[in-house]
Amino acid sequence: MNCIYLGKLGELTLKGSNIKVFESRLVRNVRDFLKHIPVDVVLRAGRLYIECDQQYSDKVEFCLDHLIGITGWAKTVSCEKSIEAITQTVTELGKRAKENGAKTFKIDARRSDKSFPLDSYGIMRTAASGLYDNKILDVDVKNPDVTIYVEVRDKCFIYSDSHKGCRGLPVGTSGKGLLLLSGGLDSPVAGYRMFRRGMKIECVYFHSYPYTSDEAQKKVEDLAKILSTYGMQTTLNIISFTDVQMLIKQKAPESWSTLALRMCMMKAASMLAKHISADCLITGESLGQVASQTLENMRVTESMAEVPLLRPLVGLDKEEIVETAEFIGTYETSILPYEDCCVLFSPKHPVLKADLEEAKKIYADIAPDELIQKAFDTREVKHFYAFESL
Questions:
Q1: C or N terminus of the chain, fewer CB within 10 Å?
Q2: Non-local CB neighbours of 239 within 8 Å, separated by 6+ positions
Q3: What is the pTM of this model?
Q4: Cα 286 to Cα 323: distance, rounded to the nearest angstrom
Q5: 125: CB partners within 8 A, 6+ apart
Q6: What is d(CA 157, CA 86) in angstroms, rounded to the nearest whole number?
Q7: Across the strands, what pairs with 51?
Q8: 336: how many CB neighbours lie within 10 A of its CB?
């Protein structure tokens, strides 16, 4: 038995003459996600259709839950394009809803095929008769227990359970970024928000063994895996920063240690961005959230970036970030008690309003470039793919 899923396109339908680029990327992303599953994927008239055998329904639904570029999706029933068949199918869906506790319903109809003899209102009124006249469910157009959707297109599609999608633009339509991924809440959310703007993303993680544990690295790898389910694939570059961090501890004023470390990270990230042809760097910084994220300190950090630096969370508070982390499934991993190197070496009284010229002098006195180059040259690379999560 085959299942048909319908995905609703959102923002990309507003594109002009280049809309085909966005549509083809969306279809390609679905096929890549489901590359080991026999499915039929078609996009036409603002709707994405995926047909598969019933045995693969869970995997297709997982794909649709993580697919960026659709506002929602539903498992549909396809029927003959006649009002009699529509009414019968609507009645069957209504009966199932009643078995699950529904008492009221409404019908939402769309008629894209203008040759169909009834308009949208006529479809709604006639299709409701099977449920209302037979006293199966009562009508409530304002707050129904179940809404049954009817779409009359080249075929007729009917469904009652609609799921929210991730929205945004298909990944792969807006360049490539390098995400500075830590084990915290913020950076995975920053990566997700850039996925939703159509950007491909690689990640870089700075590890300071033995001061940060293997569990801390595993935590970041797990976050990268989760991100890959939204971004189609994710490459994690692991850079060992122990020697750099010890140099900072020896040579930098204690109050500057966190900021000096972030400057070194930005230097290494810029080197990697150029190496992988990334168009920008991405961080999870939120203005004023911690000492290193005051406006003055962010200016110092940004001074080391050799490509544009994006901060998609800059205006969000912690509650908003947590809400997104819970939605994308990174929250439980991010709160595991394995600290990253920034936390472990944080000074008691960090500088809050760093002067840029003083920062440059401290960086020059530390002279970390040789160790940064060594760390860059010995980085470890791991690849994660969306289809591996199925």
A1: N
A2: 204, 205, 206, 207, 268, 272, 375, 376, 379
A3: 0.92
A4: 15
A5: none
A6: 9
A7: 4, 40
A8: 13
Using alpha carbons, select from 205, 204, 192, 203 the residue that is nearest to residue 231. Answer: 192
- What is the DSSP code (8-state) at residue 101? T
* DSSP-assigned letter for residue 169: B
Structure tokens at 288: 């004023």
Residue 84 CB partners (closer than 8 Å, separation 6+): none
Torsion 92-60-62-20 (CA) sign? negative
Q: At what angle do helices 57-66 and 19-33 cross, to 10 degrees?
A: 140
CA-wise closest residue to 331 among 182, 185, 181, 180: 185
CB of 34 closer than 8 Å to CB of 63 = yes
Hey, which bits of 162-232 come out as E strands?
162-164, 176-180, 200-207
Amino acid at 57: S
Give SS3 for 283: coil
The residue among 196, 112, 104 whose CA lies nearest residue 144 is: 104
Left if phi > 0, otherwise alpha if psi is -120 to 50, otherwise beta: which for 382?
A: beta
Find the range with the poorest average confidence among 3-12, 302-311, 335-344.
335-344
d(CA 62, CA 242): 39
Q: Are 69 and 9 in contact (CB under 8 A)?
A: yes
Q: Token pair for residue 96?
A: 């199932």
Round to whole Å and give the CA distance between 170 and 48.
13
Mean of pLDDT values over 363-369 = 97
Q: Which residues lie below 8 Å from residue 23, measured CB to CB, with a gap of 6+?
A: 9, 12, 43
**pLDDT band for position 262 (cuts 50, 70, 90):** very high
Does residue 324 contact residue 334 with C-beta atoms inside 8 Å?
Answer: no
**Tokens coding 191:** 């990566």
| pLDDT the model gives residue 155 | 86
Structure tokens at 279: 């168009």
pLDDT at 93: 95
Radius of gyration of the chain (CA): 26
Average pLDDT over residues 347-374: 95
pLDDT, tens digit, 9 for 90 and up, residues 287-322: 988 878 899 999 999 999 999 999 999 999 999 999
341 pLDDT band, cuts 50/70/90, is low
